[in-house]
Specification:
- The chain is α/β, with parallel strands linked by helices.
- The chain has a single domain, classed as Alpha-Beta Barrel (TIM Barrel).
- Helix 2 packs parallel to helix 4.
- The two termini are 36 Å apart.
- The chain binds glyceraldehyde-3-phosphate, 1,3-dihydroxyacetonephosphate (13P) and zinc ion.
- The site of zinc ion (ZN) has 6 residues, from loops.
Length: 326
């Protein structure tokens, strides 16, 4: 087995201090997913420019796609690049939707500073058992752990659910005290992907269940809450995709004002993946359509990367409220 690498040696931090500050300051830490170099560069540059702490998220799919060893060195490279840019920010490297103890352990051993163990599809007692096992191992190395209660509609890695199962507030205290998790993802109406709601003509997006969030906050005062599936599916990028030959009908996300409201509460981490994917797809489609002879990947990935930086800076400032908090 390869030697265990501590995230501290890589210049990363866990999420404990980040969440403490976010809770006190009424903002949320952005958790952006990455799968390739250009996305990673954009996240680091966007967060460094806006002086926001950041959680770099790697899904199981991303690990399979990019290779776990390469990812570790990419994260190390990202930390070094950030230092050279002269605007240091706290960076956590987080496993998104870990589905087994072995996967979480392998991430911890290879330098992740935070892991999610997602047992939300399991019966309560099994979710507790799995989560507790991960917490016990992670805390030995000061790695923070996110658990989940309630199931989001949409696709969570390989687990998909057609319907939302809202988090039951009456379960949260027992889950947190029995498992020892550092943060809890809850289901209040967000969902993964670019098609979050099936709206009939004239219907608007239903509001998030802030009543559930408030009840959870009452039962777990000062405890960090996480929102998955929190992309807003920005219409400007969906429109560009459709204008340049794509077909994304009825793509709709969570309105940004609602996320801003959530970020002011106990929600300390907001997960954003789909919005970044849409930016990349929109810009690459535009370049291909306007310059059909272009075949240098730098000429279409570069503009996509620039646009992602712009989106991230704006989100940190206007939605998460994390800009200037590094
Ligand atoms: O929650 C899901 C994330 O958007 C990751 O998606 O498994 O396709 O990388 P992925
Ligand atoms: P979105 O699909 O809304 O971006 O959600 C991402 C996410 O929750 C990653 O865990
Ligand atoms: Zn998620």
């Amino acid at each position: 087995m390869a030697k265990r690498v501590s995230y501290k040696k890589l210049g990363l931090v866990n999420t404990r201090e980040m969440f403490k500050n976010a809770m006190a300051g009424g903002y949320a830490i952005p958790a952006y997913n990455f799968n390739n170099m250009e996305q990673l560069q954009a996240i680091i540059k966007g967060c460094s420019q806006s002086q926001s702490p950041v959680i770099l998220q790697v899904s199981k799919g991303a690990r399979d796609y990019a290779n776990q060893t390469l990812l570790r060195y990419m994260a190390l490279g990202a930390v070094e690049m950030m230092k050279q840019m002269g605007n240091p920010i706290p960076i956590a490297l987080h496993l998104d939707h870990g589905d087994s103890f072995e996967l979480a352990k392998s991430c911890i051993d290879s330098g992740f500073s935070s892991v999610m163990i997602d047992g939300s599809h399991l019966p309560f007692a099994e979710n507790v058992k799995l989560t507790k096992k991960v917490v016990k191992y992670a805390h030995k190395y000061d790695v923070t752990v996110e658990g989940e209660l309630g199931v989001l509609a949409g696709i969570e890695d390989e687990v998909s659910s057609e319907h939302t199962h809202y988090t039951k507030p009456e379960e949260v205290e027992e889950f947190v005290s029995k498992t020892g998790v550092d943060s809890l993802a809850i289901s209040i109406g967000t969902s993964h992907g670019a098609y979050k709601f099936k709206l009939k003509p004239g219907e608007s997006v239903p509001p998030l269940r802030f009543d559930i969030l408030e009840e959870v906050e009452k039962r777990l005062p000062g405890f960090p809450i996480v929102l998955h599936g929190a992309s807003s599916v920005l219409p400007q990028y969906v429109d560009l995709i459709n204008q340049f030959g794509g077909k994304m009908d009825n793509a709709v996300g969570i309105p940004e004002e609602q996320l801003r409201q959530a970020a002011r509460s106990a929600v300390c981490k907001i997960n954003i993946d789909s919005d970044g994917r849409l930016v990349f797809t929109a810009i690459i489609r535009k370049v291909f359509s306007e310059k059909p002879g272009e075949f240098d990947p730098r000429k279409y990935l570069g503009p996509a990367r620039e646009e992602l930086i712009t989106m991230i800076v704006r989100k940190n400032q206007d939605v998460l409220g994390s800009a200037g908090k590094a």
